[in-house]
Amino acid sequence: MKRDGNASDHLREQAAGNPQDELVAGLSGQPESTQPQALLAHVLDRANLQRALKQVRRNKGAPGIDGMTVDELPKYLRDHWLGIRTQLEAGSYYPQPVKRVDIPKPDGKTRPLGIPTVLDRFIQQAMAQVISAQWEPHFHCRSYGFRPQRSAHQAVREVQATIRAGHRWVVDTDVQSFFDQVNHDRLMARLKTRCSDAALLRLINRYLKAGVNVAGTIEATTMGVPQGGPLSPVLANVVLDELDWELDRRGHRFVRYADDCNILVKSKRAGERVMESVTRFISKSLRLTVNPLKSAVDRPMNRKFLGFTVSRTGAKLKVADKAIEKLKDRVRELTRRTRGTSIGAVVAELRKPLLGWKAYFGITEVLSPLRDIDKWIQRKLRCYLWKQWGPSGYRQLRKRGVSVREAWNTSKSAHGPWRLSKTPALALALPLRFFTYLGLPNLAPR
């Protein structure tokens, strides 16, 4: 895009008036379009754009296909926003294709992530804020994902309360590759029910069909909402809002968080009927597919929802096994034997994922798995140190108060480091208070 020298100078002067204002330059004091479209004018409103820029910068994220970073975005906007805004108002703006990145999943497969350019992330964020505000009053109360003042914890608590109220069977529906399979025509028709702004609808449709850059080749996107953009979660809720109200019309007790939906019933037979009818509705009305391999009618304690499950007695919240294994994989990665990093640095790196995990799973009521993980992490760190000590293992044990006999037997043992990490000698030399002093968090409350 060519720079407009006069416009750039004008914007710099306005931005200089308040250097702390992370304004999309060009919005400070700039008059609105003389003939703004109804919702598009809200998208391009100064306050909405400022909020969008702050959110995009807060979220950070990798560059798109143009290589521009989040930190470079404010200056780019100072130089180019007037021209971009003119294109948006005239309906001549076309977003760039997203960059395809494959994210590893716990099962060994990958999940495609579409990374828009930071400019398109900014515009998407501004659009998402307006669309969300427009739809929010009409979304169902049992939809919890990507909505203000709502959280995964609230969704999990709702499931727990419903189980305790006597609905002890769950219809766990998994929509196959939801974000990749969203029907564009269906989505646009749904959006039109609450949005009559043709300019905004046209812009949304262009983002849906912007294409994806796969290893340098641009591929068309005829369906799906690429994960990775700020607009995707809002559009996902618009699509699945139709399912929410259908379930409500049928009188079902359910909880939905994005494309994870649990319907709670009182018997297995009722669950099987619900599964059949809901699968049919999702297929015929939403034009999506329920994955039969990942969906089931079962007892809640045999299923997981947002990383949690429940105990067999009392429906107490419990961390799901897969969530524990995912955490262990991360710990293994940070404590692998080839790293050669000091134990203090390893613990410092562990703090962020462990504190984040604790913040999310801290509401769990079954604490024994957390205590087991704490012990396992401490053992991994003892194993890490023992491998680092190498030939000096005997001297290190003695220096830490281990008896001559215990230190000698441990250092000369034929067992491997993992086996030795559970011995009394290592527990004495490297007690819990040692790791606590280094800053290692405890996942289980003491």
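Second entry:
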Amino acid sequence: MVAKIKHSDKAQAGTSKPAGSAVKPRVALILQGGGALGAYHIGAYEALHEAGLEPDWVAGISIGAINACILVGNDAADRLTAMETLWDEISRPDMFGDLLSGDLRRSYNKLSFMGAVMFGQPNFWTPRFPSPLLLGDMEPENASFCDTSPMRATLARLSSFDRINGGDTRISLGATKLTTGEMEFFDNTRQAIAPEHVLASGSLPPGFPATRVGGDLYWDGGCVSNTPLDAIYQDDASGHTLVFMIDLWDAHGPAPRNMDQVSWRQNQILYSSRTAHHIEALTSRHNHRRTLHSFADKADIDVSSVSDDVDLGSHNGEAHFDIVHVIYHPGADQIADSDAEFSRPSIAERRAAGYADLQLALRESPWTRKTKPAHVGSSVHVVRGGTVSSRNPF
């Protein structure tokens, strides 16, 4: 079973709740992609659950979409258990991995990864035989090394799509439209969500096949962006939104000293660099537009006369966002292919890291520290490596 956080670990991490204002903010939980690293999401959600911060909105891409489906598809009291069940079912029982450390543990993790490549993961995917490399043209839904139909059954079993589409909690799932290369968000406020929408968000080529939704084919949303933050900023709701963005890739790291570390740093930089730029672009643009709105209001002039920004007129100048960017920092025994390494000891370690990092964010509660200037509509609070820092992009 996926290891739970021990009571002693909780006491060490702290269980204080963030200081709240008179008006409760809307809570959004953003779950990024990263394959098996998504076990970090379990601990992150666990800390939020204990603090009474159940999300009003969950947005996800790839493994984040799968975890989002499990969360929104279950009652708040059952969500953590459902996530534990999911990760138990898509991993194999561990024999002795949790007893190893150092080079032995890394070797164990490499064997776990090789097993995933050769045999797939239970209730998630199975390798195709014969290899598609030996075949000619085929249907787009079959053009991949693996078959993900087991995950469709897993989602249907562990998540209630009636609950998802009931609208109590909003869900947005990012996927890449294969024929245009553009990101599209499936959202339960605009359409009925089904297992194929979740699979589409996680259809990462060439391992996983394209998923057909309606008449269109989709690949993993991470092909365009691993950050489903756009869904939050495209909304027109006013008021304060507290966004917990759970990132599985850290742009910061030491220089690699072997080829495995080279591959790991390459993946981290590849997936995290776009995330950092994406956050900066969205938050800076929002602050810029908010400033222009403030200027126009004080000067009593038409806002369109102070900017040629075509979206400024429809921009919601009253919306305010605090982005709590929580970043996973892998342990020393992780391997370059950790995103496809589903051993239960590794899952337990990632879960514990997610719990500790969210507990730190909640203890610090940087979004409550001081009143922000009127022109600041978006603030970013970064939780990385045991520290918390804040900035107001502009």
